[in-house]
Amino acid sequence: MLKQVKIRLQGVILPLAIILIWQLVSNYGMVNSYILPSPHHIYFRCIQLIENGSLQQNILASLIRVVIGFLTALLLSIPLGIILGLNQRVKLLLNPILSFFQQIPGIALIPIFILWLGIDETSKIAIIVYSAIFPILLNTINGIETTDKNLIEVAIINGISKVGLAYRVYLPSMLPSLFVGMRLGLSYCWRSLVAVELLGASKGLGYLIQQGRELAQPETMFLGVFIIGLIGMSFDNVSKGFEKKIIRFKSNDYKED
């Protein structure tokens, strides 16, 4: 426990040093404050936005979009990934079209989605889903296909049912790969969300950055960028912790069975 705390504290040293140097450079006027506002000004801008409630509203709007888009991507990609991983004929049939769309970034489809779905929330959610679905799908397929063939054969010889095969063999095998896909998918959700909000939204962190640019408030732009990074990092850390607990639980459950 103490070792983990020590490691985390060491990880904070460099960011704090950068902020300190940044503040000193700003205090001595070595950088134009419009180009690079000081941490002091960014902090007070943050307090102002918290006091008037706009920061919370923008963060909440972005989080809602990410959660809806990510959960939708999970519901679509995991079942499809399992089907493609278990059925080579279906995979051969769908692989060309999936490979084609995999190469097209979600940002490139924003004008088309707006044309089809309008400028409201539906098009924003659709872009987020599209951006997240391929990392989750491909890692689900990989998890299924890399399952140890010897384990599958032993399970079949022992007369295990298809449900038991899925639960006791495929699921433990695919979990590590699936969680990698989920973490990547969540990261892609966050990135595509900011792009969508920058191009057209009335609230959200991307909108906050755009508003800062239009009002010539660089401290607002930097604040939005920092919050995006902090929330994205928090998402990734929570995902890692959840991944460790689930995999440990499934491993213990598998051993007991």
From TrEMBL:
Q: How does it sit in the membrane?
A: Multi-pass membrane protein
Cellular component per GO? plasma membrane
- Some GO term, biological process aspect, for this entry: which one? alkanesulfonate transmembrane transport
Alphabetical list of PROSITE patterns matching this protein: ABC_TM1
Mark the transmembrane ranges. 12-31, 63-86, 98-119, 125-144, 165-186, 221-238
> Which segments constitute the ABC transmembrane type-1 domain?
59-239
Q: Please provide the record's keywords in A-Z order.
A: Cell membrane, Membrane, Transmembrane, Transmembrane helix, Transport
User: In which compartments does the protein localize?
Assistant: Cell membrane
InterPro entries to which the protein is assigned, alphabetical: MetI-like (IPR000515), MetI-like_sf (IPR035906)
Q: Does the keyword Glycosyltransferase apply?
A: no
The UniProt similarity line reads: Belongs to the binding-protein-dependent transport system permease family.
Q: Fetch the PANTHER family from UniProt.
A: ALIPHATIC SULFONATES TRANSPORT PERMEASE PROTEIN SSUC-RELATED, ALKANE SULFONATE ABC TRANSPORTER-RELATED, MEMBRANE SUBUNIT
Q: What protein name is recorded for this chain?
A: ABC-type nitrate/sulfonate/bicarbonate transport system, permease component
Taxonomic source organism? Desulfosporosinus orientis (strain ATCC 19365 / DSM 765 / NCIMB 8382 / VKM B-1628 / Singapore I) (Desulfotomaculum orientis)
Q: Recall the taxonomic lineage recorded for the source organism.
A: Bacteria, Bacillati, Bacillota, Clostridia, Eubacteriales
